[in-house]
Design a protein that fits this description.
The protein has helices at 11-23, 28-41, 48-58, 68-80. The chain has one domain (11-80). The protein has 81 residues and is mainly alpha-helical. It comes from Gordonia rhizosphera NBRC 16068. Residues 3-42 form the Ribbon-helix-helix protein CopG domain. This is Ribbon-helix-helix protein CopG domain-containing protein.
Length: 81
């Protein structure tokens, strides 16, 4: 399902967006959708508090550790068996 988004802006701002779109060979709606996708991609997916909570929880577990070559070797052997 698609939704329509209406944005009200001044003539000068709209003219500037028209120029940007024209330079890229796009319509204004195409340019706006691309700009919104780019802006959305730059937003953090999780809040800082959620990330810290996940990290704190992960630190309560015991993970294998050791020399990286040893860990990689053991991992490879696990794949082969």
């Amino acid at each position: 399902m698609t939704k329509r988004l209406q944005v009200v802006m001044g003539d000068d701002e709209y003219a500037e967006i028209e120029e940007f779109a024209e330079r890229r060979g796009e319509s204004v709606p195409q340019w706006v959708r691309a700009a919104l996708r780019e802006a959305r991609a730059q937003q953090p997916r999780q809040t800082q508090a959620r990330k810290l909570a996940a990290l704190r929880k992960a630190l309560t577990y015991e993970f294998p550790s050791g020399d990286i070559e040893q860990v990689l070797d053991e991992t490879e052997r696990g794949y082969r068996s």
